[in-house]
């Protein structure tokens, strides 16, 4: 899968709420009422990640889940990364 150029990355980011570019990843922090909400959210990521065979990096801190998406095999961002972000998008 081809790496996206800077314009393609910015165009894709413009379609997503709350996601930002950090190096070669797109990242978003999701906030919940408590730890259980965070874990339930992480559980909801399993189906889209498995369907796409594309898995985000996750960090859980009580009521926050940081989701980072990149294509490790390609060494940067591809269309697949943005498709995964769209599938796990949660209203802010």
Describe the structure.
- A four-stranded antiparallel β-sheet has the order 1-2-4-3, with helices on one face.
- It is of the alpha+beta class.
- It has a single domain, classed as Transcriptional coactivator/pterin dehydratase (Gyrase A, domain 2, 2-Layer Sandwich).
- The longest helix is centred in the middle third of the chain and has 18 residues.
- The protein has three helices and four strands, in the order H-E-E-H-E-E-H.
- Strand 1 and strand 2 form a beta hairpin.
- The protein is globular.
Reconstruct the topology from this structure.
Blueprint: H1 6-13, E1 20-22, E2 25-31, H2 35-52, E3 57-61, E4 64-69, H3 79-88
Antiparallel strand pairs: 1-2, 2-4, 3-4
Helix pairs in contact: 2-3
User: Tell me about the biggest sheet?
Assistant: 4 strands, antiparallel
CATH topology: Gyrase A, domain 2
Radius of gyration: 13 Å
Helix amount: 25-40%
Q: How far apart lie the N and C ends?
A: 30 Å
CATH architecture: 2-Layer Sandwich
Number of strands: 4
Briefly summarize what is shown.
The protein is built from three helices and four strands, in the order αββαββα.
Quick tags:
92 residues; alpha+beta; Gyrase A, domain 2
């Amino acid at each position: 899968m081809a790496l996206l150029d800077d314009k393609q990355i910015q165009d894709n980011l413009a379609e997503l709420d709350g996601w930002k570019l950090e190096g070669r990843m797109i990242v978003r922090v999701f906030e919940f009422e408590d730890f259980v909400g965070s874990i339930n959210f992480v559980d909801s990521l399993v189906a889209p990640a498995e369907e796409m065979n594309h898995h985000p990096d996750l960090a859980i801190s009580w009521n926050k889940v940081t989701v980072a998406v990149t294509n490790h095999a390609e060494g940067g961002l591809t269309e697949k990364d943005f498709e995964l972000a769209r599938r796990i998008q949660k209203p802010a």
